[in-house]
Structure formats: structure tokens, C-alpha cells
DNA sequence: GGTTTGACCATAA
DNA sequence: CTTATGGCCAAAC
């Protein structure tokens, strides 16, 4: 018997891929919208990555570490809902990710998940 | 099927 | 350092 639509993370094509890759980001590491978009095939779909995560219900927040996805500048990007931004920063800090006074991830280049060198 | 909307990114000032 | 503009592409209306 198939899984109910609400119980799975499937969406209209693109979103499902985004969730699948985001779920692979290990704890304590971070990734960017651009990197996820590149994995999907085109670095230009970074917007759709963020758009997909915006549509991610809180129910799937446990299985999809949306808080580990930040922008290419190593900063948390939210377009207005700062309440979510504080939540994201708090979650990252709980995993050992630190932020400086400017809101950027400390040692971002090293914490950035190495997508192209899985070894 | 055209228009609007975005948790983005690169570039310019 | 910050702010502004254009481009990009999928999903919603």
C-alpha cells in the first residue's frame, strides 16, 4: 500500500530532489542553495531550492535539515521572517556551528559540505 | 498558458 | 562594509 501524500516528502518533481539532497547534509556541516542547485543539474536553480525549503512543512523538518542550508555568503537568508532566522541559527549553534558578529558562519569554507569530494 | 512570486547569486556603485 | 539591479528557473494563481 502506498504511503499517504502527507507522510512522504514528495512534491512536484523539483522539490523532491531538493529535499533528498538536503537530507544528505551531515550534522555539523552546512551547505548553500547554489551547491544544492548545482547537484540538481543547474546552479541557476538556487532560487527554487530556497523556494522548495520555504514550502517545507515543519513535519518534515526532522527528516530534512533545512537549517543547514544557507546562502553563498555563509549567512542565513530569510526574506522577512526573522523568527525563522533565529530558529535556524539556534539549531546550527546546537550542532556546533558558530556565528560571528556579522552573522556569518565561522570557518564557513571548511564547514561547507564537500559535495564534489565525497571520496 | 501568460503573469506573479520567491529561504538566490553575481555584479556594480 | 551595504544597497540596488538584472537574470535565472520552477511553482502557484
How are the elements arranged and paired?
Elements: H1 14-22, E1 31-32, H2 33-40, H3 46-54, E2 69-70, H4 82-94, H5 108-111
This protein binds a DNA duplex (13 and 13 nucleotides) through residues 11-15, 32-34, 37, 42-56, 66, 69-73, 76-81, 84-85, 88, 102.
How would you describe this structure to a colleague?
With 119 residues, the chain is mainly alpha-helical. The chain has a single domain (5-111), classed as Arc Repressor Mutant, subunit A (Orthogonal Bundle), CATH 1.10.10.10. 36% of the residues lie in helices and 3% in strands. It contains 5 helices and 2 strands, in the order αβααβαα. It has a two-stranded parallel sheet. Helix 1 packs across helix 3. The protein is globular and about 40 Å long. The structure holds a DNA duplex (13 and 13 nucleotides).
Give the gist of this structure.
The protein has 119 residues and is mostly helical. It has 5 helices and 2 strands. It binds a DNA duplex (13 and 13 nucleotides) through α2, α3, β2 and α4.
Count of β-strands? 2
CATH class: Mainly Alpha
First-to-last CA distance: 37 Å
Question: Number of helical segments?
Answer: 5
* Coarse morphology: globular
SSE pattern: HEHHEHH
CATH architecture: Orthogonal Bundle
Sheet of most strands: 2 strands, parallel
Mean pLDDT across the residues is: 85
Number of domains: 1
Beta strand %: under 5%
Query: Helix- and strand-based class?
Result: mainly alpha
CATH topology call:
Arc Repressor Mutant, subunit A
Helical coverage, percent range: 25-40%
Uncertain segments are none
Strands in their spatial order, largest beta sheet? 1-2
Question: CATH superfamily assignment?
Answer: Winged helix-like DNA-binding domain superfamily/Winged helix DNA-binding domain
Q: Radius of gyration from the CA trace?
A: 14 Å
Amino acid at each position: 500500500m502506498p504511503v499517504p501524500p502527507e507522510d512522504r516528502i514528495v512534491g512536484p518533481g523539483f522539490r523532491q530532489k531538493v529535499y533528498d539532497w538536503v537530507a544528505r547534509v551531515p550534522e555539523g556541516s552546512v551547505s548553500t542553495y547554489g551547491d544544492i542547485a548545482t547537484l540538481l543539474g543547474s546552479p541557476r536553480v538556487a532560487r527554487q531550492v530556497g523556494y522548495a525549503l520555504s514550502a517545507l512543512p515543519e513535519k518534515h523538518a526532522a527528516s530534512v535539515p533545512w537549517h543547514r542550508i544557507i546562502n553563498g555568503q555563509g549567512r542565513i537568508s530569510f526574506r522577512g521572517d526573522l523568527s525563522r532566522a533565529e530558529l535556524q541559527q539556534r539549531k546550527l549553534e546546537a550542532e556546533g556551528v558558530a556565528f560571528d558578529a556579522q552573522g556569518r558562519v565561522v570557518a564557513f569554507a571548511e564547514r561547507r559540505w564537500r559535495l564534489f569530494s565525497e571520496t
